[in-house]
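If it is no trouble, can you show me the amino acids of a protein and the tokens describing how it folds?
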Amino acid sequence: MALISRVVKFFEKFFIVAPVSLAETQWDNVGLLIEAPFQRLQASRIFLTIDLTSAVLDEALSDPAVGVIISYHPPIFKAFKKLSMAEIPQKIALKCAAAGISVYCPHTSLDVVKGGINDWLASGLGEGRLDVITEKSPAVIGHEGTGNGRILTLITPVPFTTLVERVKRHLDLQHVRIGVQSDDISVLVRTIGICAGSGSSVLNGVNADVYLTGELSHHDVLAALEKNRRVILCEHSNTERGFLSAILQKKLTQSLNESSDEYVDVVCSKVDRDPLRVI
């Protein structure tokens, strides 16, 4: 079985079981985005990244064993009216196809599914009850109870400063941005609204002590503070990237190699990183 076929089957049948039917397909672009016309001769490696940038693609192309790239964010988002090397998305698509590398994107299907990115993001914050903010409707058979965002209700309230340190440790970050209404940043908090990536549409109006996400607009932060909520912003992809090595890489390796005699190696990009840094 071709390497890309095994990847597609994995997302539809195995582990997280994050089929494209779970994705926000009214605006998102998920699934098999680039199907190479041929497979590289040495293709035996799957390459994971959050963003398929030009630098990340060069890293993947330099490894002759890479046959499939799983890019969490879709490198192709808007429709093409032409294919040329002058535009970055088209250039990336052309270079992948010409090299025999296929590209699969799970994006929002991994956000909403049980055991996906939002559940992983919550897992480093402390013990408690985890609920979905907005359940997917209509429900997908076999995936009842999935949906956007999470609310974590801690068994034991903790100081806001303790929660911030837990976030930084879980995401391996030196710095995060916080928003607070007063100077008392040690106030006890129990409920945390969670949304990986951009949380504006998911967290808006959610009743929680803290909003944890990658990014919010200026006015969304102000609105949260006016309601005496605290905000932790980690930058968009910093809330997503750790999932690749902590969960997806291991599960892909295990599942694909249990189902075939052809060994598949799974690696994470070393170049991929959030475009914003604090200096």
About this structure: Residues 241-258 form the longest helix (18 residues). The radius of gyration is 20 Å. DSSP finds nine helices and eleven strands in the chain.
